[in-house]
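Lecture 7 notes. Example A: sequence first, then its structure tokens.
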Amino acid sequence: MQIKKNIIKIIGIEIKKIRDMQNTVKVKKINYNTGKEPFFFLNKKSPVVVTHGFDGGIRVEIKNKDKKLSGELVIVEGDNVKIDEIGLSDRAFKRFGLSEGTEVEVSHIPTLKSFAAVRSKMFGNPIGKEEMFAIIQDIVNGYYTPSHIAAFCSVCEGQNMNDDEISYLTNAMVKTGQTIKWDYDIVVDKHCIGGIPANRTTNVVIPIVAAYGLHIPKTSSRAITSPSGTADTMEVLCNVDVGLERMKEIVKKCNGCMVWGGSVNLSPSDDLIINTKKILNIDSEGQMVASILSKKIAAGSTHVLIVVPVGPTAKVKTNEDFNRLKNTFETTGKKLGVHVVVAYEEGLEPIGNGIGPSLECKDLLKLFKNEADAPQDLKEISLGLAGQIIEFDPKVKKGEGAKIAKEILESGKAYKKFMEIVEAQGDIREIPTAKFTTDILSEKDGEISEIDNKKITQTCRLVGCPDVKAAGIFLYKHLKNKVKKGDKLFTIHANSEGEMKQAVEYCKTNEIVKVK
């Protein structure tokens, strides 16, 4: 009888080993840069592939205790990935965060029940609260392919989301990530919806407000529809990829920070959605409101200033559009317990002279140092916005904020605070300079009558903005400036001859700066 029991035990152990071989493999780092999407690599002869019937191109999930990650599967042949291994691309290995040799289980991702709500939205039906949460949770889990996310973005495009859907989306984006609780009565933030080249007011406002004494933990996404975002420009000088605990330390020390939101896992679905929206070149109003407010709420903000540029080549074209968007922001903020103020900004042309991360950074330093050739439009607009935020402090009377902000900037306190934040975020860098420049000249005498923001952005994108930090445009003339034939209108900066050629050809066939 004992012999029989021992035989059964041995058989059981062997069966378990076989099952383990069919489900578990060891992590191996594969030095492939697959962009922002995680990729996994399995050998064609792996027991895992045979057992589960995996095909290349499907999405699978790997698990190890409480850690899991989803991504696209690639089936390989040969010995580069052995049958008991799973290769992880650079992005996947970094996100998974466990060492080579770690055993993981591999499985199909769960059935995407939440996508039924996206399909239903295609036929005009609203997305409910629980359905919206399920969609965002599946996006965060990595179950949605880029195509699924693109479909979700598309059905929400334009004004195709009602107020309830926007608040549901905002709330879901907050609850599927980390949140911060501060020990301060007032935590402020400022955000511009973008669409205007340059316009680096945020990078000016944060040090002014922090120097005043309010806490302003600024998390920013990468640029979506402009040549550079707050984080892209800040990254020229220092590290913006900081963890949550480090961010808290920086804010405690400096009163403020300027970091990339994706690194602190606040509203993690936002970065995944933004990556798709950048490719599609769309930014629906509802998703934009949810994106902005979710990050502010997750970061623990109590008071938020939203800046909306308005102009024919801005995201918001008319005063009617502005009023509708203002109402949406304020309504959503009220539903979620955040005090939101929306500020109007003239969006007829770029604010500042440098356009692109490095060139914008040079503008900032000139402004902080109070140099004579610092862009005065950037200064005046930034002071007005900083003043509005300072007036969130109940001790400050309405109308006094801008005066306080001006004193802080012109006294050098803002520059000192800016450099304190740069040093606290670490990895201080030299501002890079482009290898190639080309001047675009006026073809006649006259006056600058129009500057096309979208065409400037397109030109900057052609030379690699925001990824190529030194790339961009330096603008010499602004609206109503007088010019003579042969005067420089702007200079294109690029790091490769091919990108420069492409940008120059675009400028030849598209009138970016109109002279009348």
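Example B, a different protein, same format:
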Amino acid sequence: MSFLEVHPEHRAALAQLGLTSAADFLRLGGTIQGGHPDRHVLQLTVAGGRCFLKKEHRVAWRDRLAHWWRGFGWISKSTREGRLLRCLEAAGIACPRALAHGEAGGRAFLLLREETGVVELRTYLQEHPLERMALAEALGRELASMHAAGFQHRDLYSKHVLIGRTEQGWRFCFLDWQRGRQRRRLSWLQRLRDLATLDATLADILAGRRERLLCWRTYLAAQARLVVRPNRHLRQLCRLSARLQRKRRIRELRQVPLTPGQQGLIWLDGEALVVTSLFQEQMSRSSVARPESSKGVAGAAWLTMAEPAPTRNGVERIDVPAADHEPWKLVRRWTSRPWRWLISWWRRPMFPAPEFEQAATIIRLERYGIEAPRLLALGHRTLRPWQKYSFLLTQPPAGAVALHAYLATAALAERRRLLREAGRLLRCVHEAGYAWSGPRGVVWAVRPETGAVVLTSVDGLRRSTASLERRARRDLARLSRGADLSAADRLRFFLGYHASESLTQPMHQLARRLTLRRRPRHVAARERRVAG
């Protein structure tokens, strides 16, 4: 199935660029801004304006079946969102303009025009704390008008709400409508689910109780045709929000605005090779005449794609020499797993290569402000349906010294500070949604010029759905057993993790179990006398 739908006002401009079929749009490239395992978002320039291109690598039959069951037809997510955006634009609801959408060869796309003069809701609340009350009132009216028109936004996260201020007043824009729908009339349960999603993904430090209640009252005041029970509906809204906050994904979105990535990702070689802006900068500085050359770092990632791959499983780790830099780390992997391929073909999406998971970890840690190896390039090649070859090229932190080696020669005050910094770093890793798989998985290091504690490897980090308390108890216990630290050192690490200067009463039992392998008899006797 192949088709293309273009906005009437932009059909002529896109045709002049040679974009006359869905395959032409799918061949467009740009800088990756985000995405999911089955799709990603590119930023590019089309017809003199900046746009976002949403690409679906392949449209799953389960998505088509779900859309058909809800009355949208046998279509993809991109087609559903594109058609709904046209309806939103006709109704006067704030949303990005869909320039074109279509499908070709089992893939789909959606081209959106970039909205200028607006920022994310969390960013605006953080930068303009004095305007929170006025913004809450305006947001309540905008949400009421959206629901009055019959539009339900099932993914109304705080990151999907854009805010801007103009001379005429507030300007809003709601993103990601791939799961939205239009009804003749929305029930209170459907309305409260949207409001609860926005409330659950907005941190308390950005919006207090006063701002939330003002937004709620303004929303109720705009509901002239509905029977309103303020207290009952407010209690139901609070219950829905509390239920959503139990999910790990919602808790991550509830945090303060994250640090945006410093470099973008660029797809090359038919989306089989991904390079970063840092790698392109090194290529431009290199004296290599052409990328195919084997001299220097500029051609390293390109050579990995052309390297013949064996048919057996294996992993190869190489230190790539780099001019004016420490050696870069190159990991190449060959996999041949027929049964895993069959399971992944039925499961959809397919199991990603470990290198892609590590690349996602590096990007996520960068967003959380954690200094770790920087991503340079990654890629994959399918030799046979069940045989794959993948690689990952990273740059470790420059001038980093192993933590245990640096502590051996550091002064007492510096040793205490570094142990607390290491504890804070582990806390940041947990808040990013990762857990530590063991003492050998993560390499702690120190940069002497800045005194910061960094990570030189992310091999031991894994996504975890466990609670933050459980991850802290497990990883701190592993550190206590595996690291060569004294009881006082482990206690400082423990205090740094909890960002505390002294132990509180609930922390005593856990700290005693982690820092002291065996309590002296006089300490145990003293505790019994105090307890008695």
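Note on Example B: The longest strand covers residues 374-384. The two ends are 79 Å apart (CA to CA).
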